[in-house]
Design brief:
The protein contains four helices and four strands; from the N terminus they run βαβββααα. The strands form two sheets. It has a two-stranded antiparallel sheet. It has a two-stranded antiparallel ribbon with strand order 2-3. It is an alpha+beta fold and 140 residues long. A hairpin with a 4-residue loop joins strand 2 and strand 3. The structure holds iron/sulfur cluster (SF4) and FE3-S4 cluster.
Length: 140
């Protein structure tokens, strides 16, 4: 099984979920996130973190189309593991029915993109997110 992100995430996109996922299996579209079903380890910790109650286990009935949507877009949208500011109008869309039909966007979100707007090829000391190499020669 896996957990899946469903309708009420659309245009709410609170992103609390990404902070708690131990395997970083959330992927970001323009106005919602999805979970990669093959990466999710079914720990369940994200479910209660979502203020919009948009995350459910796929053992609930009627989720086939949502499972497919999560599965499809998890392979094309960028990974996200760091929460950003939710949309300013997130609260207005919380609970609005049929958001998939009205508002779903297949476009990718920005994911954990770093310094893409900086455009500063000369300087390497720009962003705080790259800790992949603990002993990179010189620690700051
Ligand atoms: Fe991540 Fe666990 Fe949620 Fe799956 S159930 S998406 S592993 S936090
Ligand atoms: Fe969406 Fe809920 Fe995460 S609204 S972004 S599934 S916290």
């Amino acid at each position: 099984m896996t957990y899946v992100v469903t309708d009420n995430c659309i245009k709410c996109k609170y992103m609390d979920c990404v902070e708690v996922c131990p395997v970083d299996c959330f992927y970001e579209g323009e106005n919602m996130l999805v979970i990669h079903p093959d990466e999710c380890i079914d720990c369940g910790v994200c479910e209660p973190e979502c203020p919009a109650n948009a995350i459910v286990p796929d053992t609930e009935p009627g989720l086939e189309s949502w499972l497919k949507l999560n599965s499809d877009y998890a392979t094309v949208w960028p990974n996200i593991s760091v929460k950003r500011e939710p949309p300013a109008d997130a609260k207005q869309f919380d609970g609005v029915p049929n958001k998939l039909e009205q508002f779903f966007s297949p476009n990718p979100g920005q994911g954990d993109a770093i310094t893409e707007h900086v455009g500063d090829p000369g300087s390497a000391k720009t962003h705080p997110i790259s800790n992949e190499h603990p002993s990179h020669g010189q620690d700051p």
